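Data's thin. Show one?
=====
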Amino acid sequence: MGDTVMVVEDDREIREVLRRYLERADFVVHTTGSGVHALQQLTTGGIDLVVLDLGLPDLDGMDVLAAAHETGDIPVVVLTARSTVEDRIRGLKQGADDYVVKPFSPTELVLRVQAVLHRRASSEPQANGRSSYGSGRLRIDEQRHVAELDGEPLELTPTEWGLLTTMASVPLRVYSRYELVNRVRGYEFAGYERTIDSHVKNLRRKLGDGSDIIETVLGVGYRLTLPKDR
């Protein structure tokens, strides 16, 4: 069997549909309708990804989203009826790796789960994965999944890590929002092209005084301004 997915959804029918589709795709599936139970399962461990409904009866889904990242940086695909652009941006700002609005296609959701896990696997440690930029100002160690700026570690969500490492793969090169969506999220989806700006804003906030190392190229996209050290 493959990775373990926890479906947190208070609608029993939706839970069972997702279980069937995910199991057909060779996932191990745990389901619950309780946010409190989801928090307990996250603490126990063994979860590779969470499919999360934000409208839970006993707990704000955002609390579960935060716990998933705090207890092991577990990727989260949000599944919700909250369909406004503001709701989507809020969920992504809180660290969601993807955002699916009800009603939805179970097949599409499985593809999104696979894409998120593929991105995570692609960012796992690689041989000789340490690189530095700007005379050591920025250091990225893909073996340990660690990034440091001016000697201080950066606490990044999977999406922020993907943005930084994508731009660092060819520093000084301008990446369009379309490219970043496809490189970071693993597939084309126009709705997320508009949210890249929010993720870059969060990344810059975490860079603090070093936020200028990510440059906006108006009308095009973004680039890392530090050259790679030899």
About this structure: Residues 106-122 form the longest helix (17 residues). The two ends are 42 Å apart (CA to CA). The CA atoms of residues 118 and 211 lie 28 Å apart.
